[in-house]
Amino acid sequence: MAAKDQAPVDFDNDAIDAIRKTLLERYHILPYLYTLLYRAHVDGSTVARSLYFEFPSKETLAIDSQYLLGSALLVSPVLEPGARQVAAYLPPSATWYDLWTGVPAAATGAVVLPAPLNTVPLHVRGGSIVALQYPNTTTTSSRKNPFRLVVALPAWSSGITNTTAATGELYLDSGNSVNPVQTSVFSLHQYTAKHASNGYLRIDAEAVAEGYTGPETKVLVDAIHVYGVHGYDADSDVHVAYVKVLNKRTATGTYFAANNTLVITDLLIEVGMSFALEVFPLAKHITIAPAPTSRPADADAISTWLYVGVGSATFIVLGGVYQIFSRRRGYTQVL
């Protein structure tokens, strides 16, 4: 019996919608996957890895229904027909957020995750910075679209510094060159983020390799999403400033209290640029006293004495200058 064709168009509309959404999500993370392939080439590290690889324990040893992409993304696929939820394991030693929404995992360890028909549960690990790119229908056209950085902060610890940090990197090349690493025709950008409990956040991007400066490096980073921020009120105004090529600019920051997420937009940063960005909540309820609308009763008297005092001082100074000038002129005549 002939097997059913597996092209998306051979399925019903619900399946087509689910396939389309899943493929576009995969296109979103292509820059991250491409960077993992670079690391596999130069370091021999794995792209897809078991949970035991990153979190060795008796709980993760036998898990074969989940996997990690690099160290940052945890995939919990639905493998049972008709299932709308999936039994999963989220290692308790890390903080986990939904990659797309920033909602933190309600629990860790053995959990049951909702998995509607068009959803593949995908979590980002706290301490990671992942570069995403808005998708299109082909990889060639996707590479022309803007980037979005996801900064996933780890949970707070009781350390002395009272700060959290995250790191990540992005590899770029032309996409069709031969041996770009061996010939150094590539660019590599490293990202770091540090966040203090008072809300202060600094994100740095450093170009550690700039052998490739093609159009892929000119694409804009149009948003940065920061998960797990602290130090903000529900109505906090957010100050965002960044420096690129010695020019200081401002951007827009919006805090979403429901899931402690900070969204930074209105950026004019090319993905191939180094930059330093600072964010902090502005102080609220600052009252500036209004200017008086009427003059005090003794204002005229005060003004009169001021005029007299200033006039007298001016007369004395001018008189002294005149005497000095006269003496100077006399000395000149004598000489």
TrEMBL record:
The keyword Transmembrane helix applies. Residues 44-130 form the Glycosyl hydrolase family 31 C-terminal domain. The chain crosses the membrane at residues 305-325. Keywords: Membrane, Transmembrane, Transmembrane helix. One of its GO terms (molecular function) is hydrolase activity, hydrolyzing O-glycosyl compounds. It holds the Pfam family Glyco_hydro_31_3rd. This is Glycosyl hydrolase family 31 C-terminal domain-containing protein.
